[in-house]
Amino acid sequence: MTATTNPHHDRRWLILVVLGVAQLMVVLDATIVNIALPSAEADLGFSDGDRQWIITAYALAFGSLLLIGGRLGDLFGRRRLFVTGLAGFAAASALGGFAQSFEVLVASRALQGVFAAMLAPSALSLLTITFSSGPERGKAFGIFGAIAGGGASLGLLLGGILTEYLSWRWCMFVNLFFAIPAAFGALALLTDTRPAHRPKLDIPGVLTASSGLFLLVYGFSRAESDGWTDTLTLVSLGLSAVLLVTFVLIQRRVDEPLLPLRIVTDRNRGGAYLGMGITAIGMFGVFLFLTFYMQRTLRFSPVESGVGFLPMTFAIAISAGLATTRLLPRFGPRPLITGGMLAIAAALVGLAQLQVDSSYAAHVLPAIIVLGLGMGQVFAPVFNTATLNVAERDAGVASAMVNTMQQVGGAVGTALLSTLAATATTDYITTNGGPSPDVIAAAEVHGYTTAFWIAAAIIAAGSVVVGLTIRGGAPQVAAHPAPVAAH
User: Fold this and answer.
1) pLDDT digits over 290-323, tens only?
2) Which residues are CB-neighbours of 455 under 8 A, at least 6 positions away?
3) Which residues 6+ apart lie within 8 Å of 297 measured at CB?
4) Do the domain assignments include residue 460?
5) 206 inside domain
């Protein structure tokens, strides 16, 4: 699509602002509520065991519905899905902010996930068709990738400030200040498009993909709380595998598949999806355990912990911008994504050296700066590569795959690393004389560092797989198909 046929070209940078605000809201919500959970628990009177469902409800709905959300945008209009997602997310956030019971709060989080599944792929696909080629695409994806990578740490800071100085409820209400202006901006700036021929929705694909992804995320979430040998954990993961294999078989046979396999079998796109999923396995663990370390070991307040992550956010922004505007056009995605993953692995090895008496400035800060530089080298090129040369009719579902890999990777990483960290903590206490205060403090840090070591190994090994998958050389932009009709 050229500037003359792109209806968004003249207002592309304002559109980027709107899309960036929406993306920031979705990413913030993955972490902002974590900080608010203890206060919400005290206010609404639910148990520690129930607390995980406030996180899990969002992840289940979001992760399982992303593919259908992306395809609905392709079929019925991305602006329509984007605005619907924003409006629904705002309403669900208001419901959660006013919640007077645990059940209502969980329901609001599930609804947030439903509307986020419409919103996130619509935002990335709108970015894809607005900045389809040229140097400006690199700048736009650098900004978007920085938001995606750094938003989680900003969520920790914002959540801490709102919880400490206002109320946990403002961690929900704050979404209205993102969603409402973004919705009005989208209505004013975006032109909806529809395919000249609107194919039928692949219902068997929808059912198998959504249920398979739901059971996958649920199975890993349950493994974290009930263990890997729990019957329901094993049944969920087994059924998920059957359903997802069935989904792939269906996609090979139907005329209008939910996820055309040409999207994921392209080596560069497939490698980008793998890079996102493997990196997410380690990243979710970093935020979880490093937050615990700052608050429990270094005795940081929630606000101080959020501030502690800011250097990483700045490093992501610098690295993402450099990666997509300078390095990606010259060297291609393979050295950037694999090099970024190796930098992340090196940073995790640095964090694995933490002790009870380590300091933030000498031990945490250098590692999280390297971590941010690596994340910027991964996230921005992944978003760019995963959507490059995708036909406009498939932009939504291709974008949804990026978010799906991030969500699934996060679920896998949180469950796997939490389980291994808990086991390491228990073993340390057992072998070091029992649960005295000093032993417990050391055992907790031992659990965190075990998780960092394992995450480093996963990401380092993953970088080899990604490097073998993605082709070498600078990306080649294919001729774009004829634009679809506006309405």
Assistant:
1) 888 988 899 888 888 888 888 998 898 889 888 8
2) 281, 282, 285, 286, 348, 413, 417
3) 356, 441, 444, 445
4) yes
5) yes
**Are residues 396 and 414 part of one domain?**
yes
Neighbours of 200 (CB within 10 A): 9
Residue ending a domain, among 221, 241, 257, is 257
Phi and psi, residue 193, nearest 5°: -130, 155
Q: How confident is the model at residue 37 (pLDDT cuts 50, 70, 90)?
A: confident
Average pLDDT, the chain: 85
How far, in Å, CA of 295 to CA of 42, rounded? 19
**Residue 87 burial by Cβ neighbours in a 10 Å radius (0-12, 13-18, 19+):** middle
Which CATH number characterizes residue 69's domain? 1.20.1250.20
Retrieve residue 268's tokens: 């560069």
Could you list the residue range(s) of the whole structural domain that residue 463 is in? 9-201+258-472
User: How many domains does the structure of the chain reveal?
Assistant: 2
Three-state DSSP class for residue 194: strand
Is there a domain that residue 367 lies in?
Answer: yes
Alpha-carbon distance of 118 to 155, in angstroms, equals: 21
Distance of alpha carbon 470 from alpha carbon 463, whole angstroms:
11
Greater pLDDT, 52 or 385: 385
Dihedral pair phi/psi, residue 194, rounded to 5° = -140, 150
pLDDT, one tens digit per residue, over 453-487 is: 999 999 999 999 999 999 877 666 555 444 443 43
Residue with tokens 């605005």: 83
CA 468 to chain centre: 24
C-alpha count within 13 angstroms, C-beta hemisphere, residue 377: 22
Distance CA 377, CA 370 (A): 11
Radius of gyration (Cα) for the chain, nearest Å?
A: 22
Distances (CA, A) of 190 to 148, 231, 463, 469: 21, 48, 37, 36
Distance CA 343, CA 367 (A): 10
Q: What is the pLDDT of residues 45-67, one digit of tens each?
A: 887 667 778 878 888 888 888 88
Confirm whether 36 is domain-assigned.
Answer: yes
Could you report the per-residue pLDDT of 171-225, keeping only the tens digit for each?
A: 899 999 999 999 999 888 888 666 666 667 888 888 999 899 889 888 888 887 7
* Prediction pTM value: 0.86
Number of H helices, E strands in the chain: 18, 2
User: Distance (Å, rounded) from C-alpha 418 to C-alpha 328?
Assistant: 35
The pLDDT score that the predictor gives to residue 7 is 64
Among 217, 238, 257, residue at a domain's last position: 257
